[in-house]
Amino acid sequence: MPNDAIFDDNDLKAAAQLVAGSMLDSLPSRAECEHEFSDDFTAKMDKLLHWQKRRRVWHTVMRYAAVLVITATLALGAVMAASPTARAAVLKWARELVEGNMVYHFYTEAPEETLPLYGLGWIPEGFEETDVFNNGVAYKAIYTNAETGKGFVFEYYYMDDGAVPMVIPEDDINLEKAKINDKPVDFYQAPKDEDTNILFIFDEESNICFTISASIDRDTMFKIAEHIYLAEAKK
């Protein structure tokens, strides 16, 4: 055959048919291919086919389930973004670390009533209340110890959309998540004893956030928080 031979499509098609025919002729007859597989092999194949069918069905179910979950999540996100009431029904507050600042987001509407009056049923020995600020929206009381010069601040406010307290964590600050009287709390402990520790108490039932700020030890701050009580209901 010359090296410069040129084949058109018809030549290639005819050659392919010849090759296919030759390969088919070389195969054994159907009778020669008869084979009886063992019961064990047949059982394994039946099991494999059964699981393959289940996988196809389960895969279809999971695809529809995934679509439903994504749809529900997107719908919930849209509703929460548009409605403070819907956000409050799902969660009332959340924390977020933003560029080194711990930001607390609140998702309840501010009530029309003024703040109820809360008090402390226990304070450390030697401390006394020296200053109080209360405008009906926020409450702050300062307690000091004249002998040691130490003090702490007790304050609270409604957890509404307009209130966003922030804590600036230092490199070695420690965040402890706990509960006091069945209420979630966040305790920020500073690395040095003379630095200020901060305790957040989230009263989700009353939609009020309490904070205690002090350069005193953790156990004492927790004990103060355990004795927060309602002194006068809101008006």
Instruction: Let me know the CATH homologous superfamily of the largest domain.
Output: MucB/RseB, C-terminal domain
**Backbone CA Rg:** 37 Å
Q: What is the CATH C level class of the largest domain, in words?
A: Alpha Beta
User: What is the helix fraction of residues, given as a range?
Assistant: 25-40%
- Give start-end ranges of low-pLDDT stretches: 50-89
Shape: rod-shaped
What is the N-to-C succession of helices and strands?
HHHEEEEEEEEEEEHE
Structure report:
This protein is an alpha+beta fold. It folds into 2 domains: 34-82; 91-232, Phosphorylase Kinase, domain 1, CATH 3.30.200. Helices cover 33% and strands 32% of the residues. It has 4 helices and 12 strands; from the N terminus they run αααβββββββββββαβ. It has helices at residues 9-26, 39-82, 84-90, 218-226, and strands at 93-98, 101-106, 117-120, 127-134, 138-145, 151-158, 166-167, 174-180, 183-189, 197-203, 208-214, 228-232. The strands form 3 sheets. The protein has a 7-stranded antiparallel sheet with strand order 4-5-6-11-10-9-8, covered by helices on one side. α2 (39-82) packs across α3. The longest helix is centred in the first third of the chain and has 44 residues, at 39-82. Residues 50-89 have low confidence and may be disordered.
Task: Outline the fold blueprint.
Elements: H1 9-26, H2 39-82, H3 84-90, E1 93-98, E2 101-106, E3 117-120, E4 127-134, E5 138-145, E6 151-158, E7 166-167, E8 174-180, E9 183-189, E10 197-203, E11 208-214, H4 218-226, E12 228-232
Antiparallel strand pairs: 1-2, 2-7, 3-12, 4-5, 5-6, 6-11, 8-9, 9-10, 10-11
Helix pairs in contact: 2-3
